[in-house]
From TrEMBL:
<protein>
    <submittedName>
        <fullName>Uncharacterized protein</fullName>
    </submittedName>
</protein>
Amino acid sequence: MGELFCEPFPGTTWLLPPDFPLTSYTNFSIHTAESYGNMLKNKVFDAAPTTAKQLPAFAYVHLDHDATVQDKLFFCDEDQRVLRDIRWLVMRTDSYIAPGLFLVTGFQEELGMLFPEPDSVFHHLGRYLFHPNNHVWGFITRYYDAYLATAHQRVGIQVRVFGADPESPELLQQITTCTQKENLLPRLLAAGEPAAAPSARKSKAVLVTSLKSWYYDKIKSMYWEHATATREAVGVHQPSHEKYQRFGARSHDTKAWAEIYLLSLTDVLVTSGRSTFGYVAQGLGGLTPWVMYKPDNASQVPDPPCGRDVSMEPCFHSPPFYDCRIKQGADTGKIVPHVQHCKDVSWGLKLVPHTSA
């Protein structure tokens, strides 16, 4: 944590002390016997134990993408009444679970006071907790000052490639069609077409983030080799191209965090659907992005190529599909009005403004 972030709380730390009683449990997983789901399944205690003696010393809450139905009972009021009496809870998740918390009736009053605008939860928490350390901040400020600061508008394009083919002409067309159709980037002059009348010269700085350099090279070449219909100057920049994701590599994580933060400093943002990299950038920046939908057929460009998201909140990719009140499977995107399904992940859940239809 210290290699990426500053401590958010002056005079204290968010890291567990060395003598914390559960530090030896370093390999929590879906198979951990002490997980709440497994303890329910194995009847270590009932869902509503009658005495404190029946409760374990700690419980592990497994909410990773492979969480079971029993694990996801964490989002039920009856189970929360049990969990609140267990002294230590340890959670592991690779998802943004906040939308699920808003389904818990017992949490709704407190969450409403903390977040009167439910579509700003990640923005407030992220800006409060996630501060780049001095090393990462140097990456951010040097790049921003050199390539982005003087532009009249900054456009972020986050490209996440799913699948085996990293260089997709269809995805490139989707990017260019989306950005030009939504007037985020100017269209190119056709052969023989007269340029717009001279006016105050404006510039756009385009920040492309991707593991590959191919998309950046193509977009940069387009705006170098052709004039724009608006006479705007378009500069295209990509901080790094690491080729593939390197889990646990410190320099790789540093660049990723710097690029997420740089994306959050843009004025408008285009993201790849289903990508948590883009989710964090939009949340930190308070940006409602244009999302490029993942096509069912990779050889076709989706129509429309992108759409404005309903909020800046990340999508919860592995939510519960269970209505705790009626104790049966249900569409959890229809329980409370400000928790709806995501545009880019049809089964996912997303926090939206109270007024969203």
